[in-house]
Amino acid sequence: MKHQLLYFLKILIPFTVVLLVLHYFAVRELSGSYTFYYSVWSIYAFHFIITFLIYTAVLTVSKNLPEKTGFAFLACSGLKMFAAVIFLVPLIKGKAPEPIADVAAFFIPYFLFLFFETVFAVKLLK
Question: Where are the transmembrane segments (predicted)?
């Protein structure tokens, strides 16, 4: 399990750093005078931590109850959606001038990390 977790981190960390740098420069160059509600760093910290926790949970279930791995991934994905809503509550309640831009800045990485998690979960299921 430790070997799989380290391999996952060897892929997750560069994936996160590359996306963070691309997102940071895109926001800096394209946003003009608009200030996003959440910083790029906080968005990627959220995604990195949630992705790592989900994979750790799914890997643990896979080792102990391999027939329940798919269900564990689905449950964790549901919890991730709930965590995303909780993370975005201040944005939703706030009066951001362009909430669509803020939501897109959060959900584009959300779906990229979800795809990343799915690829590794499918590897566990095989």
Answer: 7-26, 38-59, 71-92, 104-125
